Structure to design on (477 residues):
């Protein structure tokens, strides 16, 4: 299938006194299953790697788990009402693989699918377009026991699971994302081990990255076969990577980190090949013998759109390595580039200590458009954690409003520069389980009071975003 023309309205601006977005721009908010659903053992759901990992001592801050999370599983209807109050045009959620297929193979668990049927029906009844992500990191534990993503068979299992989901929901869901952020699954899950399943094996991380992308390609083909009209994409997390100085060593450090963070995924997915320099950098770790003939053609199966998650920028310098990462390490976040230092520029940061860099969003979108594809792009996540306090029943999160405002202006600038940007999803609809940080980091536009019966309190950012959606833009500055 060839790349379709962008839908009408994508990337076409109305000029006016306001910063108006193209008509039909898809204003959304995003969440992920393990971060909000809870009900970890209900209705036949099997354990995922995140259940096992979060129940392992020393993995998640304060021993938090997603057992209950935001209890969204039991609050689906009222949560969808909150989305309708915001005026959301779309809601990006993920399906929990072990809820649908408790051991990662075999028939579907009907009760698990029923939950997503109800969710999708409620969304459609509220005129909110469902945007379904098939994999947001919760691999069934059984599949990890059988080798996990470093094992080739997991890719085939993912395609089987995709068929179950599209058979159940394909008549109602138009937008499909295969994977969320394969870099995190591969390099945090199997490299540094700070995410589930917590393995620290660089070679396994490289293989995992490949099999995730292979699973993606097979899933795209399964979706196309079942629903030729589906809009299918993948979501990658991208960063501009700058050298701290123009010394050749720093420039090379930036090339290497850009290779692992961005091009390791963009090139196979959108060009059908691994970048040669990245393969060379990784030679000492992995011979790429796991890549079989034909894999890259599957991985590069044409898409309808590309999802981009954007949070920050990396500025890097060549060594000397931090003591903790010196010498040969069996696993790392940046295999083969453990000597690279991440340099802080001293600019304002969020509660994650991520530097706030809205121009980086323009650069990222333009790069993907200029260097890789004419496909419509969507910002499938962008947002910030800040320390929120409830005062008189209100949360006035001015820093988060400023973050969204700056990044939406950047998104608008990218559109003005010719990027076919079709939509923007705020991360996140509500506060939730922030992976290794547990509930200690709040990204939501809706505050969740975990200690007071999960009360939901829309923050100032929720009201602000509702107004942006209502006027389809921002006031010009
Ligand atoms: C992204 C994840 C998402 C959330 C945000 C803050 O990497 O996709 O689940 O944790 O970061």
């Amino acid at each position: 299938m060839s790349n379709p023309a962008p839908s009408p309205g994508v990337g076409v601006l109305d000029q006016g006194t306001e910063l108006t977005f193209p008509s039909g721009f898809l204003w959304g908010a995003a969440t992920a299953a393990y971060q909000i659903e809870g009900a970890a053992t209900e209705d036949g759901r099997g354990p995922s790697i995140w259940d096992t990992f979060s129940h392992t001592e020393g993995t998640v801050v304060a021993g938090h788990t997603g057992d209950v999370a935001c209890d969204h599983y039991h609050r689906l209807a009222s949560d969808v009402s909150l989305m309708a109050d915001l005026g959301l045009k779309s809601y990006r959620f993920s399906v929990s693989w072990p809820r649908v297929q408790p051991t990662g193979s075999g028939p579907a668990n009907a009760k698990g699918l029923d939950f997503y049927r109800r969710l999708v029906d409620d969304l459609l009844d509220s005129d909110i377009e469902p945007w379904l992500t098939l994999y947001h990191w919760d691999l069934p534990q059984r599949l990890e026991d059988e080798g996990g993503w470093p094992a080739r068979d997991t890719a085939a299992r993912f395609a089987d699971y995709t068929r179950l989901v599209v058979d159940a929901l394909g008549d109602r869901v138009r937008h499909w994302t295969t994977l969320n952020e394969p870099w995190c699954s591969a390099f945090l899950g199997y490299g540094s081990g700070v995410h589930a399943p917590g393995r620290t094996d660089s070679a396994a991380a490289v293989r995992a990255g490949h099999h995730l992308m292979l699973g993606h390609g097979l899933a795209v083909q399964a979706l196309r076969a079942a629903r030729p009209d589906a809009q299918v994409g993948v979501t990658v997390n991208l960063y501009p990577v700058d050298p701290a100085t123009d010394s050749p060593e720093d420039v090379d450090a930036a090339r290497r980190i850009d290779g692992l963070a961005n091009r390791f995924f963009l090139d196979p997915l959108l060009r059908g090949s691994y970048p040669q320099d990245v393969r060379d950098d990784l030679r000492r770790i992995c011979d790429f013998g796991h890549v079989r003939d034909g894999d890259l053609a599957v991985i590069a199966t044409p898409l309808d759109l590309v999802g981009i998650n954007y949070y920050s920028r990396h500025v890097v310098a060549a060594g000397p390595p931090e003591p903790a990462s010196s010498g040969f390490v069996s696993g790392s976040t940046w295999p083969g580039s453990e000597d690279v230092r991440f340099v802080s520029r001293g600019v304002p940061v969020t509660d994650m200590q991520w530097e706030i860099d809205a121009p980086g969003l323009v650069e990222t979108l333009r790069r993907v458009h200029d260097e890789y594809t004419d496909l419509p792009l969507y910002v499938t996540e962008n947002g910030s954690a800040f320390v929120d306090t409830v005062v008189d029943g209100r949360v006035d999160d001015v820093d988060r409003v400023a973050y969204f405002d700056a990044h939406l202006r950047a998104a608008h600038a990218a559109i003005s520069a010719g990027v076919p940007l079709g939509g923007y999803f705020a991360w996140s609809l509500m506060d939730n389980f922030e992976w290794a940080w547990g509930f200690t980091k709040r990204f939501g536009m809706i505050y969740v009071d975990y200690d007071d019966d999960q009360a939901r309190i829309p923050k100032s950012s929720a009201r602000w975003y509702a107004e942006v959606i209502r006027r389809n833009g921002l006031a010009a500055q």
